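Look over this record as teaching material.
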Amino acid sequence: MTIPPTSPTVEQLLGRWIGLDATTIGTTAIDRAVRLRMAAVAAADRQAYLARLAADRDERDRLIDEVVVPESWFFRDEPVFDDLRRLATARRATPHLRPLAILCAPCAAGEEPYSVAMTLLDAGLAPERFQIEAFDVSQQALGRAVAGRYSANAFRTPDLAFRDRWFRRDGTVAVLDERIRSRVAFAWGNLLDPGFCAGRGPYDVFLCRNLLIYLDADARRQVERTCDRLLATDGLLVVGAAEPAMLAGRWTAAGGTSSFVLRRVAPTPPPAGAVAAPPRAVAAAANGRDAPGAAENPPDPQAILDEAQTLGDSGRITEAIACCRHAAAVAPTAPGFFLMALLELRTGAIEQAEACLHKALYLDPERADALLELARIADARGDRTMADRYRQSAARVVARRDEP
């Protein structure tokens, strides 16, 4: 008897389509998105919905709209825009150069590319001296970007003077000035498509922020290859605060105020008379190994956790959890799982938090704080017996510490 092939799961399909590592947003979020779309199309069950996804490109895009994390706001991470102001000033002094070419992908609802346009115009760069192209996989987000209408949630920075300059009020909504809207060209695009932006560029600045933290390893490498292909030789790559350590290639801080505005590391020329070594990828292939870019400059898991703590403290919980998961993939530690548990608790993901606490205890059975958190979870469930056991275990840990 022939056994029919197993249908791919929604998580596998999302990984195939947009490179999503489902663990970064959790199965709860994906299940919620699937339930919403199943109800919208009156799918009888999950298998029927999977069949619908396979046959209907529009439904695939609608599911992606439900799943992606379009979290952004104007002038997010101010040091990035400080660096762009300096770039604009330098361009003003070199009018013979071609217009500054800027790419923003993903662009969410337009807050980032519009922030770039405001930055350059406020720095005195003439509109014809720059061009901004912005892409995203979410049709809904692109629709909001083109409309240029924003709620108070898009304005989170302490200094909101830019809102007075570039927006007008329409009830509770802030409407962006057409002079800014006209400087950005929006389009649908998927960075995992090998032909993404084919024939375009090179770009002087590529803003690809807070995407890598949601991708699996293969997708991260594909995105990095795309960044490398589209960037000018001396171009700037702008990633999220936690993402430089996720890059496999040779990148370095560009020297401004932001540590996540990067340039390529220039290759070191061989000494005179020396035979140049083969490229790393070629040499690795000859030895039957993958290119060792990441191994030569391994990410620092503690630095990733420090960034997760900073993101969590500033309320950016989804990004902080993604950082913790990346750190755990590099080097699982009890402090890392404990921090992830606290972050999961803030989102209401009790089961995920509980699993993280047990992993922390597996790595370090002497973590009284993890035992006390498990006690609180048990209390919330009404399981007083288990809560008491956890507290007693925590008390024994503390007692052992106090022993001479």
